[in-house]
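Q: What does the assembled structure look like for these inputs?
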Amino acid sequence: MRAKPLLLTIAHRLAILAYIAFALFPLYWLLKVAVTPNDLLYSEGIRMWPSRASLEHFDFVLRHSAFPVFFKNSLIVSGSTAVIVTVLASLSGYALSRFNFRGKYWLVALMLLTQMFPLVMLVAPIFKILSPLGLTNSLTGLVIVYTAFNVPFATFLMQSFFDGIPKDLEEAAMIDGATQFVAFRQIILPLTLPGIAATLGFVFTAAWSELLFSLMLISGNDQATFPVGLLSFVSKFSVDFGQMMAAGVLALIPACLFFLLIQRYLVQGLTAGAVKG
Amino acid sequence: MTYVARQSGLPKSRTPLKKRIADAAAPYLYSAPALILIVTVMLVPLVLGVSYAFRDIQLLNPFSGAYIGLDHFRALSEDQAFYRALRNTLWWTGASVFFQFVFGLILALLLDKPFYGRGLAQALVFLPWAVPSFLAGLNWAWLFNPVVGPLPHWLFGLGIMSEPHNILSDPQLAMWGPIVANVWWGIPFFAITLLAALQAIPRDLYEAASIDGAGPVQRFLSITLPFLAPTIAITILLRTVWISNFADLIIVMTNGGPADRTQIVASYIFTQAFKRLDFGYASAIALVLLALLLAYSMLIVILRQWLLSKD
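A:
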C-alpha cells in the first residue's frame, strides 16, 4: 500500500521538473551563448557550458553599440505608458466599480470590442493619422498608441481590485464631509496599491514586448525601441550570435524583474480581470 | 414652528443644484479620459481602416486615394497567397491552441495540490509568460539554428533528422518552429487561468466523492471537468481568436518564408502594409479576417446555446 503513493509522488515531482526544464532551457541557452567567447562558439557549439566564460559580448554591446539607446527608448516608452495607463485605468475602473450610469453598458461593450478585433487592422490607419501630426518616428506617438491599446484591459483589472474593497469605507468618509474624489484618492487608492503595482507591471511588460506597431511607426535608429533595434541588428549582422544574445539577455531583465514582483498575484488577481477582459 | 419644519426638510430636497450636477457628471468625468483615448486611437482608425478597404491607398503613390468599390476583394478572391495564408492560419492556430491547452491543463493539475517548493516551481514554470514575444521568437530561432543551437544536433542524434539542418528553412517543417515557440510561450497563460478555476472548486466535493468510493479518474471526470468546462470554453474561444491574429513570432522567426509556407493571414496583412505599403489591400484582407473571426465567435456562441438547451 505504501509503494503506490510514493511512486505517484516521484512521478509528480519528475513531471514538475520536466516542465521547469522546458520553461528555462531556452533562457539558459541564451545566457550560455552570451557568455561564450567567439573562438569557442563553433568548436563547443552544443556543450552545456563553455570551458571558458567571458563577459566580452556584454561589454561590447554596452559600450560600442546602439543598444543602450534602444534600452533607454524602451524604458521611456514602457515607463510612461505604464504610468499613464494606470492613472487613466484607475479612474475609469473606479467609475465602473462604484457608479451606475447611463451608457455604462456601452462603455463596457466598447472596451470588450477593442479586446476582440485584430490590432493588425489598425497598423495602416494609425500610420496615416499620426504621420501628418509628426508623431511617426517619435516616442510620444508610440506612448499614445500603447496607452490606448492597454487602457481597456487595465480598466477591467483595476475594476476587479476596486470591487474587492467595501463601499462603506468611502461612504463613511463622505458622511464626514469629504467629496467622493477625495475619498477615492485618500482612502481607496492607497488600499489598492497591490492592484496598482500589478497593473503597472502588466502594462509595462506589454509595452516592452510590443513589436508590430513599433516596427511600422519607427524608422530611425535614434528613436528605435528594443525590439526594433534588436531585429534590425539581427538582419544586418546575423553572424554575431554572441552579441545578439547578450543584447537579448539585457532585454529580458526588466520583464523578469516585473514578473518576479507580480507573480504572487498572478493566480488570484490577474485571472479575476483576465476572465472578464 | 415653521422654522423647525424648514430645517428638518432641508438635507434631502435642498441639495444645491451645483452639487447635483456634479454628482450626475462624476462617472462620466472618471471615465472620460480613457473613453476619449479609446475612441480616437482605436475606434476612429478602425472605421477609417474599413473605408480603406474600398479605396486605392498606397503610401508612396500621391495619386492614390480614390474609391474603387470592391476591386480589392475581387483581387483577393484570386490571390493564391491569401488562400495559402488562410490554410496556414488554421494549421498554426489549431496546433498552437491544442498543445498549449493540453500542456497547460496538465501543468495546472500538477500545481493544484500543495507540495514542498510549489511557490518556486510555479514562479519558474510561469516565467516564459514574461518573456517579450520578439525575444521568445529570436530565442527559438537561435535554438533551431544548427550553428549555435542544440536542437538540430539532438534531433540528428535521435535519428529523427538525417543531418542537423535548420527546420525553419525546410518548407515541409518550417511551421513547427513558430508553433513550438508559441506553445512554450503560451502554456503559462492556460495554466494560470485553469489553476485559478481549479482552486475555486470546493474541496469537500472531492472528500465526499472519495468516501463514496470514486477513484481519481472518476473524480476528475465527474467533478473537475464539469467545473472547469465554462473556463475551458471561454479561454479556448478567446485564445483561438488571439492566436490567429498573433503574427509576432512568425514575423521574427521566418517572416512568412520559406516560400510563404509559414505566412498566416495576420502576417500577410502586416507584410502588405509594412513592406509593400499598400494600405488599401492590407485593409481589405484585414476586413475579411475580421468577418471570419466574427463568424467563428458567433458559431461558438450558437453551438454553446444549442448544447445548453439540449441538456
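DSSP finds 13 helices and no strands in chain B.
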